[in-house]
User: What shape does this take?
Amino acid sequence: MVAVIVVVVVVAALLAVAGLLFNRLVRLRNETEAGWANIDVQLKRRNDLIPNLVETVKGYAAHERELFDEVTKARAAVAATSAPAERAVASDALSGALGRLFAVAEAYPQLRASENFQELQEELTDTEDKIAAARRYYNSVVQTYNTAIQSFPAVLYAGLLGFRAREFFSAEASERATPQASF
Amino acid sequence: MTLRQQIRMNRLRTTELLVVFALLIGALAGALDAVYGLGPAIAVAAVGLAWALFSWFFSASVVAATAGARPVTKAEQPELYRIVENLSIAAGLPATPQVRMVDDPAPNAFAAGRDPKHCFVAVTTGLVQTMDHRELEGVIGHEIAHVQHRDVRLMTLVAVLVGVVAMISDLALRMLFFGGGRRRGGGNANAIVLAIAIVGLVLAPIAAVLIQMAISRRREFLADAGGAEITGDAEGLARALRKLADDPREIRDTSRSTAHLYIEGPLGKASGPRAALANLFTTHPPLEARIAALEQIGGFKLP
Assistant: This one.
């Protein structure tokens, strides 16, 4: 009788602990997914602003065609990629192309004076800031999540339960490397 | 203490607070029963509970109204608005808190609301005028950290409950002065004295204890550290705190029930009896200590 009670209690305790550990992994994974959705929203917003920007700049600086092509291609690349690291490379390339476009725009006083252009520039700068903010959050929750599934005891069962390490939204190799598990 | 532990601790404190509050209402009802009979006692307790529920549900609006914080649009304050939006994203909040402003030349800021989806960040007009972009980011980061840590929920609850307790004691006293207490035979002097003693002596200190429970100094240090992590710029916040320390102005019209919400304790600069009282209930650690902690985090030294 006593043995049965002991077994029941021990099993119940183990189940409770397992449940808590499992829930923690689920919560962390959900945080990475929410973080990724944040980045996605901002990348889409930037992509939506670009056609308008290109049209506006074309009106004043029609012969900068190469630059327009570069921006348009980089925009398409961001829309086409889906893996975080790849997408980060594409996103950084687009930021660079936009930076050059705004640098060139400096040479056209009429363009700079255009209210529409100023608004677009402000919106884009803001979106770039928001991408940076969303990236910071995403990378920090991915760091926590990856460390959690690679640490003991989760390392024993996380893989079996379908918890896979997530990629960082980063073009840099140093950040892409998986963090060391700490025991 | 990790962030997660801090959040859990705040949840526990919130529950404790609710239990203490329920006990308090029960004790009050008991005292009222002794003086006025059962009917009025139940009525007062019910009004108190209804008021508590009402103000909890509308806590953000109630606190905003108490502090005189009006909502601002993105068109009015684009810079402030963007900082709040960006830092909410960086902190991973589920929604951007509402942005509000208090018309006051003294620089200060606070956040309130019952959860991250129903809350706001308020700054004074003086803060926007005094701080540069970087410092403003530091201050907003501190407030966003409070929201993230669920400090805001607990501190708002305190503000609400203190208001309710004040209301009930006010009601009880009014009943006493305007002809109550006669139902159990004219001039049951002992019971009345007892009631006054309970109302006067129990309520005031309990209100103070409630406030003090919420005002852990560690909470401010943690919000500073959290804010620095969100902005990635400990120095910006440290500079802002230095500016707050150097600014002699004190925000007007802060009632004791909302004092603990601000980034800089608003009741500490006056002299005289009010200052003595403020020191007794210091809501915030000294700014210099907070700056020193930030200097350690960021590895810099303010001049």
Summary: The domain at 68-152+217-298 of chain B is CATH 3.30.2010.10 (Zincin-like). The two ends of chain B are 30 Å apart (CA to CA). The longest strand of chain B covers residues 109-115. Residues 181-186, 268-281 of chain B have pLDDT under 50 and may be disordered.
